[in-house]
Design a protein that fits this description.
Elements (H helix, E strand, L loop, with lengths): L2 H33 L17 H51 L18 E3 H9 L18 H6 L16 E3 L2 E3 L27 E5 L2 E5 L5 E5 L2 E2 L30 E2 L2 E2 L1 E6 L4 E5 L12 E2 L2
Antiparallel strand pairs: 1-2, 3-6, 4-5, 6-10, 7-12, 8-9, 10-11
Length: 302
């Protein structure tokens, strides 16, 4: 065998071995590339597992839009729940008044002389005790429509007594409740009015009774006579009330450390309030239909 022939075989053999190793290396490289975990920035479009900045901004924008749509609905549902609770309170107070009326020979509660009660929600201690004995709770005697300024804590739950404690413990002779009571405010001995409620709005019984308006005797059926009302209160008395926001329905000063406000406000004006009538039914009265019912002190409307 010549040297040239031997050289060709060696070169040819080396060439085949090199080709095999190249083929084998190619297979390994292809296997590694197809099994490697894709990395952001080194993969084809659509195969990335990470969010881009634009995608994140789109998601945030969608969440913000949904929140803007849902929050008003949630607020409306919360207001509806307060109105439902308020109406339920009215019915329970009506039952308690019926029990009181039966126990005291058809007589409604009456203001106590020399106890300093004057506003329509000032209720003598013996009357409130009778309410509690009939099954009412303290919470039932407060309108949820004054939240969040007045919660259970400010109404009755906080400790202490006096103007810096709670409405419940404001004074030793009476409790400030969360509803206005159109009850008898006359002194039982002298017959003189000792409260701020006009005589034409006071009730002595749940039965039908005559009232005197402008010197004339007027007969009002029990179904038309309000005995308990949601608190709509103001400093001013200009009428019609819904055209006079300067009457101040949400910042009425009294002896309590927090200023008072009307229940069921929408902005600076009341929307309306529930009314409980002598016959036991209750309904909703819009604020434009309300008129002042007091002759002095803070103005109560229904």
């Amino acid at each position: 065998m010549s040297n040239d022939t031997h050289f060709q075989k060696v070169v040819g053999g080396a060439t085949k071995l090199q080709r095999f190793r190249t083929f084998e290396s190619g297979l390994k490289y292809q296997f590694i590339m197809t099994t490697r975990t894709p990395q952001a920035g080194h993969t084809k479009s659509g195969s990335s597992a990470a969010f881009t900045l634009i995608e994140l901004l789109v998601v945030i924008a969608i969440i913000a839009i949904l929140a803007a749509m849902l929050l008003p609905a949630l607020a409306h549902a919360k207001d509806k729940a307060k109105l439902t609770q308020c109406l339920s309170n009215m019915h329970e107070i009506g039952i308690a008044l019926n029990i009181y009326n039966n126990d005291f020979r058809d007589k409604l509660p009456q203001f106590t002389p020399n106890s300093a009660n004057a506003w329509a929600w000032d209720t003598p201690n013996p009357v409130v005790d009778a309410f509690l004995n009939s099954g009412l709770t303290k919470k039932t005697l407060y309108d949820p429509g004054t939240e969040p300024r007045f919660t259970d804590a400010e109404n009755y739950a906080n400790p202490g007594t006096g103007p810096n404690s709670t409405l419940w413990n404001f004074a030793p002779g009476f409790h400030i409740l969360g509803y206005a009571f159109a009850i008898n405010q006359k002194d039982p001995t002298t017959g003189q009015n000792i409260g701020d409620l006009a005589l034409t709005n006071q009730n002595t019984t749940l039965q039908t009774e005559n009232i005197i308006i402008n010197g004339q005797t007027v007969w009002q059926p029990a179904a038309e006579r309000v005995v308990v009302a949601c608190v709509t209160i103001s400093s001013g008395i200009a009428t019609p009330g819904y055209l006079h926001p300067e009457n101040n329905y949400n910042n009425v000063a009294g002896g309590f450390y927090l200023h008072h406000l009307s229940a069921h406000l929408q902005g600076s004006l009341p929307v309306g309030g529930h009314m409980l009538y002598k016959d036991g039914h209750a309904d909703w009265r819009k604020f434009p239909a309300m008129i002042p019912r007091t002759i002095s002190g803070a103005v109560f409307w229904w």
